[in-house]
Automatic annotation (TrEMBL):
Reaction it catalyzes: beta-L-arabinopyranose = L-ribulose
Gene: araA
One GO term describing the cellular component: cytosol
Protein name as annotated: L-arabinose isomerase
Matches recorded under Pfam families: AraA_central, AraA_N, Arabinose_Iso_C
Residue ranges of domain L-arabinose isomerase N-terminal in the record: 10-174
Entry keywords, A to Z: Arabinose catabolism, Carbohydrate metabolism, Isomerase, Manganese, Metal-binding
Length: 497
């Protein structure tokens, strides 16, 4: 793939606040403790990225300098602050006014318990996180900063898990700011939700979304050598079961995969789109080829849907190393048994095999649309488990992210004549209420389906990017959602004035 960073290539700077009032001995103790905390975070399995202690800051100038350094260091994906002692918050204003990286306020203290016999005023002067973090919290609120507040003892697993989750969201922010999306052709004709303001989106999220002619892709496909195809076919045979005798169809998908990957890597792109309405010069709509590229971490969107393509890539990057998988998805049809309603998600061809319950099969079947040869694709069922579906939509003047909690189940039907990958799930709070809520919020038919990301992770990402967030969960009710959408509509319009 292109020069893509892994999570351990990112750093988070641990910055501790204090002041000169307490004298050099206290400052030495603070620095030593902060260094030990950062090293402990850095070595913890819940923490996916590097944590680097960057210093105990005591002046306006120190804070401003370290924020400037963070802004311009490509390795730094965010800052974590903690006030071990009392750090007067006015000294943070200049630095925070310049901050361009995600920010987490960790409210903790070095000692777990109050030492009954040893506590005296020296101890009180040194251990003032309950005091200092409240002063620090005020300036974040006063400046109306996007921030993550995590409260709890720094050695506890829930604190580290939440910190690690927030870091993944911050990495998603960095990925977003540098993302290029290649569109092979344009959108499917007359589809509304796949459209959007690409200029506004680049201003807000950083995405560079541009078009490459299908002819450019065809020329690259024709240049793929037989040796390249042979090598990839060996990989296919090692990873998947072959349930077809149409080997030429599979080999053509290999050509498409190789060609698309070359273009994406040459352009430094992490995501792409295509549409079955624009296949001029191609023998098949990419099916297996697109599934394979998603398996490698590229984002994909059908019918020219560049928003879901970009989000698929971002979520895959955020959730590196987490179990479950992430895939481009589409709501297709429902099973409406009263009280047991389920959704069936699939797509014509392109569902990522990272969500498969068992070894996928390569099959070749007619597509029915697109007027091309029968394409090869991977067929499988998704595995059971808690998941979310994510939709990013353009509301005109602002972007809205909608996340719904779902629970994937083993499909209740065999569906032997459905030749595509599929997942069945129960939507929260139930299918009827959940679908009602989804439609009221404007959620798209294309989504990112992920077992690996959480709603909290995506909410943190949305806040970092400065976009609206709607969560449909087990506690959602329609009347409350209507009020929430109305209030947010007014608030975001006022925010844009």
């Amino acid at each position: 793939m292109h020069a893509q960073k892994s999570l351990k290539d990112y750093e988070f700077w641990f910055i501790v606040g204090s002041q000169f009032l307490y004298g050099p001995e206290v400052l030495e103790i603070v620095a030593d403790r902060a260094s030990k905390m950062a090293a402990s975070f850095d070595a913890d399995a819940h923490i996916p990225c590097r944590v680097v202690y960057k210093g105990t800051v005591k002046t306006n100038e120190e804070i401003t300098r370290i924020v400037k350094d963070a802004n311009y260091d490509d390795r730094c994906a965010g800052i974590i602050t903690w006030m071990h002692t009392f750090s007067p918050s006015k000294m943070w204003i200049n630095g925070f006014s310049l901050l361009q990286k995600p920010y987490c306020h960790l409210h903790t203290q070095f000692n777990r318990l109050i030492p009954d016999k040893e506590i005296d005023m020296d101890f009180m002067n040194l251990n003032q996180a309950a005091h200092g973090d409240r002063e620090h919290g005020f300036i974040g609120a006063r400046m109306r900063m996007a921030r993550k507040v995590i409260v709890g003892y720094w050695e506890d697993e829930p604190v580290r898990a939440r910190l690690g989750s927030w870091m993944r969201s911050a990495v998603g922010c960095s990925v977003s700011r540098n993302l290029k999306v290649v569109r092979f052709g344009d959108n499917m004709r007359e589809v509304a939700v796949t459209e959007g303001d690409k200029v506004e989106t680049q201003m807000k999220l950083g995405w560079q979304v541009n078009t490459w002619a299908v002819g450019d892709l065809v020329r690259e496909i024709e240049a793929v050598t037989e040796a390249e195809v042979d090598a990839l076919m060996e990989e296919y045979r090692a990873k998947y079961d072959f349930a077809t005798d149409n080997i030429e169809a599979v080999r053509y998908q290999a050509r498409e995969e190789i060609a698309m990957k070359k273009i994406l890597d040459r352009e430094g792109a992490g995501a792409y789109t295509n549409t079955f309405q624009d296949l001029h010069g191609m023998k098949q709509l990419p099916g297996l080829a697109s599934q394979r590229l998603m398996e490698q971490g590229y984002g994909y969107g059908g019918e020219g849907d560049w928003k879901v393509s970009a989000m698929t890539h971002i979520v895959k990057q955020m959730t590196e190393g987490l179990p479950g998988g992430t895939a481009f998805m589409e709501d297709y049809t429902y099973d409406l048994e009263p009280g047991k309603e389920l959704s069936l998600g699939a797509h014509m061809l392109e569902v990522c095999p990272t969500v498969a319950a068992a070894k996928p099969r390569i099959e070749v079947h007619p597509l029915g649309i697109g007027d091309r040869e029968d394409p090869a694709r991977l067929v499988f069922e998704g595995h059971p488990g808690k998941a979310i579906v994510i939709s990013l939509i353009d509301m005109g003047g602002r972007l809205r992210m909608i996340v719904q909690d779902v629970e994937a189940v083993k499909p209740k039907y065999g569906m032997p004549n459905l030749p595509v990958a599929r997942i069945m799930w129960k939507a929260m709070p139930d299918l009827l209420t959940g679908a009602h809520a989804w439609i009221l919020a404007g959620g798209a038919h294309h989504t990112v389906f992920t077992y690996a990301a959480t709603a909290e992770m995506m909410e943190d990402w949305a806040e970092m990017m400065g976009i609206e967030f709607v969560h449909i969960s087990s506690s959602t009710d329609i009347e409350s959602l209507k009020k929430e959408l109305f209030v947010m509509d007014v608030a975001w319009k006022l925010k844009g004035i």
